[in-house]
Specification:
248 residues, alpha+beta, five-stranded antiparallel sheet, 4 helices, 10 strands, globular
Length: 248
């Protein structure tokens, strides 16, 4: 069970991480365990959520770009669903209508969707979709307001992924039968696959190499001890936007 160096290329980003992997067969020579950390349900959940955020970040980064839309669908008081299953049906109807309208425009619907049900009963739909005519969205959602916020994070959407997981976690606590997974997505999205290679414990260095054409997302740098009691280290690089020359 060795240390590994993982890398996932997604859109303009490259996330790197070094950690001990208990799922990987074999053992690294010279491997030393840190202070024993008794695994608890809370620490295990924290690790699981971190991995969920990583995966959703990769999917967002690989399929969406700045200018695409973060959309929140609200309900008027008189249009709120009478039951929670209607909430799910409303989302399905919205997506079906939107898919048909985009198809007539020669476009394909790509989305990531989560539902939010608050402890006091407030209901919202949160979606990440490709840029489109806002009028098209308005025609597909007759139940209340639509908030549209264009993406602007240079291809790194980790904070948005954290928000989506927070919304889905809230809903899964309050309405376990409503959301059976942390997000729903169209089947036409690219799903990035991380690369992993074994490294010797002695080569576990918290060094960041930034190649030409990239810059470091400083907020992504994290180091510590994971739920198994071993060191981990992670950071993300973002590709520099290339400026077109004259006549380009």
């Amino acid at each position: 069970m060795p240390y590994i160096h993982g890398k996932c290329v997604a859109g303009k980003t490259e996330q790197h991480w070094k950690c001990y992997s208990k799922r990987w067969p074999g053992k690294s020579k010279g491997e030393k365990r840190g202070r024993k950390v008794k695994e608890s349900s809370s620490s295990q959940k924290k690790g699981n959520l971190r991995r969920l955020v990583d995966k959703l970040t990769w999917i967002m980064n690989a399929n969406f770009v700045d200018g695409d839309f973060m959309v929140t669908l609200d309900y008027r008081k008189d249009a709120r669903p009478g039951n929670r299953m209607q909430l799910k049906k409303d989302a399905r109807n919205f997506l079906d209508k939107l898919r048909r309208k985009l198809k007539k425009q020669g476009k394909e619907l790509q989305y990531i969707h989560v539902m939010e049900v608050g402890e006091r009963g407030a209901m919202h739909h949160h979606l990440l979709i490709k840029e489109m005519d806002i009028k098209t969205l308005r025609e597909c959602w007759p139940y209340g307001g639509i908030q549209v916020e264009p993406l602007w994070s240079e291809g790194q959407y980790r904070k948005l992924a954290e928000y989506f997981i927070k919304y889905s976690e809230k809903t899964m606590r309050t309405e376990a039968a409503l959301m059976t997974k942390h997000w729903y997505a169209s089947r036409n999205l690219v799903i990035p696959e991380p690369e992993k290679k074994v490294i010797k414990a002695g080569y576990f260095k918290k060094v960041i190499n930034v190649p030409a054409g990239y810059y470091l997302d400083k907020e992504s740098v994290a180091a510590g001890v994971n739920e198994d009691g071993f060191d981990y280290f992670t950071y993300t690089l973002i590709q520099v936007e290339r400026k077109r020359g004259r006549g380009g």
